[in-house]
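Friendly challenge for the regulars: who can give me the structure tokens for this chain first? No prize, just bragging rights.
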Amino acid sequence: MTSRNASPATETQSPAEINAASASFASLISKLDYLSAEDLGQVRLAYRFADQAHLGQLRNSGEPYITHPIAVAAQCAEWKLDAQALMAALLHDAMEDCGITKPDLIERFGSPVAELVDGLTKLEKLHFNTREENQAESFRKMLLAMARDVRVILIKLADRMHNMRTLADAPRQKWQRISSETLDVYAPIAHRLGLNQTYRELQDLSFRHMRPWRHAILSKAVAKARGRRRDLIQKVQADLEATFSHHGMPVRITGREKTLYSVYNKMTEKNLSFAQVTDIYGFRVVVPHLIDCYTALGLLHQLYKPVPGKFKDHIAISKINGYQSLHTTLVGPSGINVEFQLRTEAMHLIAETGVAAHWLYKNDGQNDISHNERMGSKWLQSLLDIQDETRDAAEFWEHVKVDLFPDAIYVFTPKSRIMAMPRGATMVDFAYAIHSNVGDHTVSVKVNNEEVPLRTEVKNGDVIEVITDAASSPNPAWLGFVRTARARSKIRQNLRSMAQSDSQHLGEKMLAQALRAEGIESLPDSSGGHEATWDRLLRFTGNRSRAELLTDIGLGKRIASIVAKRLSKMLVDQGEKLNALLLTRERFGAQTGDAIAQTSVQIDGSENTSVRFAQCCRPVPGDSIAGYLGRGEGLTVHGSNCQVAKKLQYKDPERFISVEWADEPVRAFETGVVVTVTNGKGVLARVAGALATAEADITHIDMAEDSDHGAIDLKFVIAVRDLQQLESVLRNLRRTPAVLRAERITNGNHLNN
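First reply, four minutes later:
Bragging rights claimed.
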């Protein structure tokens, strides 16, 4: 839980050390007045146990090690966490450092406390400066532990905060790694959970240790600016107090200073000097009731002139992490811009402590915590949803990184429901934010009653209507532009499911074909007396189910002919007779090279992801074709005369299967043509017109670089129905003025697209 600052101590602690530990615990007890006497007794027992367990350990500062768990518990007490969390905070290092086991903790303090400590101990073993895949796995474990019990991450953040406060005592070579980890991982999580005060402090402490010189320079500059502007701040404060007092409105006014890290970030991102950063200071006005926020806003706008475009209503539309306030920037005395934040006490509590406000509210006797709970639980639940769909740690890490840095855009559904989307989110992201079924079946989108492309980014205030079709499914191209983790994970899950279904269907066709070559008319059903046969076959192949076996055959992980030989032997052993006519016809066809339609896998273009068409030869219906079953790649269809296919057949003949075109393919197929033309104005348009006349769709164009003079080659990928249409296309092209030559692209001259 902590950067391991423990070191062997002397045999006995000095009275000063004992007093220090005792005084520290006394200060913790003073913060626990919200606990019952029974709970307080349990926390005291946990302290005694932890104190005994850490006896003889010192931190790098020379203090008794127990001061660290006490400091972590004290921060948890600031958030008014329950007794179980406080006990876990005190015990969080006991399992790792002191040889205490989980059963020991269960026996002494109960299962809930032991589970929290165990979760925290596992997090302590995570190292974020390892290779990316290990980092991803570590991050996944931490976030899932957090999603199951948010107290785990609250204690972890309290632990990290104390470690950062005492980082100066650690060896200097550790500063960079620990600070970078805090800035990249823990500060964003604190922000995502609405722990604004923790977020700001973690950022500043990280900045102090990562860039100590810059931190010191900025700190002096801010202190000087504070001195120069003291009169301005006092003048604004006096004006505010007089205005609100005159109107009988009770308010609490506090100054707000931009953190050094925020100032540094603004200077670097916008290339500003320190003098150009004008919003270092601001004011926070806390009022009793929600309606008072708007009344106070009106009074402020009468007192000072507002800066146009600098008003944001985060009350009507709260931020993704639950933050609510009115923000306005006014032109104060001497023409200096001053920012104001207006909020209620409840909003202030959520703004500073986020999900921790749940415990603060509960102990204040207030029940209206639904907004805050939704704010925290919605994101945490989404982590579990993504984990269910994404077992790969690196993919999970990729998803969550996107969601850790939200910059919200607010849009509306046609029924005026407000939805917050990250900046850069597209229409597909919006569709998936509504519901995964809406996203999966999206075909088009209207923004403000006008149809827009699906990759269009959302903008503030857009009214977005999604049009769906039950027959539609996600397009793999969507992965190239979606922004949110939810959309990306849902699309990938759906595509994986489609690919598996396609591969299973192909594998079934291939096994049936191979079985006919063994004299068995059809594939036996998995029921009707053949269950035992399939069970024995699965034991032979090592698959868990019939569907998995067929999918493996479709993906090329298993050879259909080998499985068919084994299956046919099992069926013969059970008394099934081979079809002699079918067997003779199959073998005769194989020997003479005849393609028997009944025994070939038929290709009609509906196979989706399970069948690919080789780009080296780009076959179309009418071409003689061959099927190559790559290992784990599914079926690739080549032209029979393709040089690449011939090399593969020489090297791996058992992976070629008989394929042929169906009588009526269901779609057009891509092929390549090269057109040599005399360079001149309008040539490309004339060639494109000839292709359109022949009803060929252009999917890609590649033009030679030396297009300024002489004859040039235009290379096209076009979609045609069959070989007959392709020949018609070539005839049309050859008759076009300025075309010198037109021919189909062969293996030696193919497109690189």
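The chain has four domains: 7-216, 217-363, 494-613+629-636, 669-749. DSSP finds 29 helices and 22 strands in the chain. Your move, everyone else.
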